[in-house]
Write a structure and sequence with these properties.
This protein has 236 residues and is of the alpha+beta class. Helices cover 18% and strands 26% of the residues.
């Protein structure tokens, strides 16, 4: 049976047989309140009324005098009869909302992690420093020079007075790769930038082992003394 403390409403699981036929004093383990607890009706069935003996065997002496019922002991005198049983754990209010909150948080974290993996190429392209974070968990994005090989051959066309840059891009990886734009920088003898431009090589992904050629030309700049040709960055 369930017993509820009348003061703090703490619930207890109690075996009715522990209360006895007349009930007994119990004490709340939560607030120490004591009260008399009776068992539920029908817990202890009344004994059957004994049959009267035959007249021949009735005792010859008169019936004993009436004995007064013993007065119930005061609450303080029956302290040794108090019982204290483990309380039934009450469900905390709001615990279901806390659980739902944790589930939602885990789903958001998992979704963010999945999105970070799915779009990691674009993330690293726009924020190269993010590749260090991906590398720590084994998801680093290969850098362009790890998958593509660039070879450039510049020359001057004296007749046209133009700079001509020819070259090739080869996919040295085992998967198809996007070919980024190529950037050309011209500097003077003091390494000061005098001219720069970028151009596209191919709009299609380059298959493993495949090579694509490119050519770019510019009018000759007399101030240019040095040249650098490389893949363009995300901000170029």
């Amino acid at each position: 049976m369930i017993v509820v403390c009348p003061r703090c409403n703490t619930r207890y699981q109690v075996d009715p047989r522990a209360l006895g036929a007349d009930g007994r004093m119990v004490r709340c383990a939560q607030c120490s309140h004591t009260w008399h607890q009776s068992p539920p009706p029908g817990t202890f069935p009344l004994p059957a009324e004994p049959e009267a003996p035959p007249p021949s065997v009735l005792p010859p002496h008169p019936a004993p005098e009436h004995v007064a019922a013993e007065a119930p002991a005061a609450e303080g005198e029956r302290g040794e009869e108090r019982i204290q049983l483990p309380a039934v754990p009450r469900r905390r209010r709001g615990s279901s909302w806390v659980t739902i909150g944790w589930i939602v948080l885990l789903l958001l974290v998992a979704g963010g992690a999945a999105a970070g993996v799915w779009w990691r190429d674009d993330i690293v392209r726009r924020w190269p420093a993010a590749n260090l974070i991906y590398g720590k968990v084994g998801l680093g994005v290969p850098q362009v020079h790890d998958v593509l090989q660039l070879v450039a051959n510049p020359r001057f066309d004296e007749a046209a007075d133009r700079l001509i840059i020819e070259g090739t891009v080869t996919n040295i990886s085992t998967s198809a790769q996007r070919v980024p734009r190529i950037k050309v920088e011209l500097t003077d003898d003091r390494q000061q930038l005098v001219e720069t431009w970028t151009f596209s090589v191919s709009a299609e992904r380059l298959l493993p082992g495949a090579t694509v050629s490119f050519t770019t030309t510019k009018p000759r700049n007399p101030a240019a003394k040095n040249m650098a040709v490389d893949f363009a960055g995300p901000n170029d």
